[in-house]
Amino acid sequence: MERRDFLKTIGVAAVATGVTTGLGGVACSKQKFTKGSGMKLSYEIKQLNLRHTWTIARNSSNFKQNVFVKLEKDGIVGIGEAAPNVRYDETPESTIEVVKKAMPLFANADPFEFVQLGYDIQNLCEGQTAGKCALDIALMDWVGKALNTPLYKLWGLDPKKSPLTSFSIGIDTPEVMAQKTREAEPYKILKVKVGKPNDEDFIKAVRSVAPDKPIRVDANEGWHDKEDAIKKIEWLVKNGIEFIEQPMPSHMMEETAWLRDRSPIPIIADEAVKSTKDIPKLAEAYDGINIKIMKSGGLQEAMRMIWLAKSLGMKIMIGCMIESSVAITAAAQMCSLIDYADLDGNLLISNDPFVGATLVDGRVVVNDKPGIGVKEA
Ligand code: MG
What we know:
Strand order of the largest sheet: 4-5-6-7-8-9-10-11
CATH topology of the largest domain: TIM Barrel
Bound molecules: magnesium ion
Number of domains: 2
Distance between the termini: 7 Å
């Protein structure tokens, strides 16, 4: 779809600077780059429609409004995406504030100094990591395109070593959850959302359709009593569940440590972990962490999280929010370093505005295009 038509379709758009270059910038390693300053940043909101009403322990939604950014210099355009999340006090508007705040930074920065620039993005303000993530993805996409190299190669990784991805089944009536499980036939691993009084019904519904598939469970902080939680986990173990993600609220560290001591399956932190500095204390209560680039504030911080979690012997998952192929493909670039992938956000929407990584035999496979490797659909 032409960009102009797209803006008309969504009805909500804001372009802050005069970037006219199309997406999917020119990759040329021999190109002479102008030194230092002059990066232009623009943004727009796009509505992503969900295939099914999406319900987790916390809330329900039918669509998401994500913020997309473009970073342009020397005819190369880096693309980034923010999926603002109310759990972390983020909205499209607060995300745009971060992007506006970053404009002078980019106007004066050298993109090849992307490590320092990445830290400068992190220090723009407290929180608002989705906005920072969009900026970091766009920056790394630009750098990869400028060097004519896919990001995984820049990082020295072999994408063939990426684990299978899970596909998430949101909370619904057992009948609808069974139907969603049927639709998830191409996926080799399921992640089932729980966190309600009748969690067992959800698992029974999914198991009735997928008796042998590996299933992971995510309670999204939905269990509040540790005695109840261990009973639920023991029941889940009998039903072949591989691990449990964020069983209790993130602030209930002592209770989670108590649970971990008794749980036969790993307990993975999600809402409890955002960035590197959270990880050391979590090693006391969790077996692993779910890294999301929207929580970490981008790819570079996610990579630092991987190194630290690995050094502490923790399991590593890379998960996602409801995101288009931009953020999913960006995160997939680092998947060969992790134990579990949960990159299905783009598969839950019906109008992905971009194409990038594809699902092949249950694995999210990146392409060999430079940068993150996405273009407009
Ligand atoms: Mg989760």
